[in-house]
Amino acid sequence: MRLLTAVERFFERLFERPSARLFRARLQPVQIQRRIERAMEVERLSGADRTFVPNRFRVALHPADLAAFGDMTASLAAELADAALTFARAHRYALADRPRVDLAADLRVAAGDVLVEASFADPESRPVGPGDPGSGEGGLEGSPVDGGTMVFRVPTVDAPLAVLREIRADGTQRDVQLDGRPMTIGRARENGVVLNDSRVSRFHGRLQARRGALVYTDLDSTNGTRVNGVAVTQVVLGEGDRIELGNTVLVVESVAGS
Predict the structure, then answer these.
(1) pLDDT at 234 (0 to 100)
(2) What are phi and psi of 154, to 5 degrees?
(3) Element (H, E) at 73
(4) Cα torsion at 216, 219, 224, 227 (round to 10°)?
(5) What is the phi-psi region of residue 23: left when phi exceeds 0, alpha when psi lies from -120 to 50, beta otherwise?
(6) Do the bridges between strand 213-218 and strand 230-232 make them parallel or antiparallel, or are there none, so unpaired?
(7) Nearest to 66, CA basis, from 109, 22, 23
(8) How do strand 56-61 and strand 51-52 relate by DSSP bridges?
(9) Least confident of 87-101, 125-139, 148-162, 196-210
């Protein structure tokens, strides 16, 4: 995904920026919108039953490009946020709350270019009006709307971040505590969690805290990983999830903040 994005970005710079200089064309809102959508795709996190995407976007533009929007800057930011929400709904992505877009001038950004920094943030405390998240009138809180977008609250990280229960093929068990630092799982003794299972790869997977969530990543293991019976490559974990590696099962007993 990131390699494809880099290739697309190269061709955009090759064709869009020279043409903008040639025809004196101003940076168009649709170009910014597409960069926000791409940032949402690149930073998405796949869960067992849904895909989470960022809800905060800092858009850096060259000062001249930002100044060209004049008094429309505030309304443009709001429209871009609405477009991001529409994009998420269309792709059935999950959001913490309604997206927010902030436009900023940055001399490090070339004229005609756009730099988007995407991040996850908890819902903000603010008055709720009709159609807003949590209002019950077309908002996001608590249930799917317009294509399945849902509110979720990312668990906060605390020590220990999580407790897993390892259930071996012979029925024996043990508890494993995670403090949020990356921890690999596999047969090799160098792993943070060593599994005595011939169907588990030497370095099978990795657990770590990312943006306040507990994330599991399969490290191209031979037999793969399943979470709650579904094959995954990367997934956000919650309490009760079952990670199946070979003949071993890791059950998420608790996650801080959940």
Answers:
(1) 86
(2) -70, 130
(3) helix 73-90
(4) 0
(5) alpha
(6) unpaired
(7) 109
(8) unpaired
(9) 125-139
Q: For residues 66 and 76, is the Cβ–Cβ distance under 8 A?
A: no
Instruction: Look up residue 28 and give its DSSP letter.
Output: P
Residue 136, by phi and psi: left (phi above 0), alpha (psi -120 to 50) or beta? left
| Nearest by Cα to 161 from 148, 180, 182 | 180
Closest by CA to 150, choosing from 79, 223, 52, is 52
Q: What integer pLDDT is reported at residue 13 of this predicted model?
A: 52
How many whole angstroms separate alpha carbon 235 and alpha carbon 158? 20
Go through the chain and tell me how many residues it has.
258
Q: CA 224, CA 204: separation in Å to the nearest integer?
A: 8
Task: For residues 9 and 232, give the distance between their C-alpha atoms in angstroms, rounded to a whole number.
Answer: 28
Q: Which residue has the tokens 């008094």?
A: 71
As given in the structure block, the two tokens for residue 207 are 């657990």
DSSP line for 148-217: TB----PPPP-SS-EEEEEE-TTS-EEEEEE-SS-EEEESSTTSSEE---TTS-TT-EEEEEETTEEEEE
pLDDT beyond 60 at 79: yes
Task: For the full predicted model, state whether its pTM sits above 0.70.
Answer: no
The owner of tokens 């070339």 is 110
Whether residue 88 contacts residue 51, with contact meaning beta carbons closer than 8 Å, is answered with no
Q: What is the pLDDT of residues 170-188, one digit of tens each?
A: 999 999 988 877 888 999 9
Pair 112, 65: CB distance under 8 Å = yes
Please choose, from the candidates 100, 37, 95, the residue with its C-alpha nearest in 3D space to the C-alpha of residue 74. 100
* CA dihedral of 16, 18, 19, 22, whole degrees rounded to 10: 160
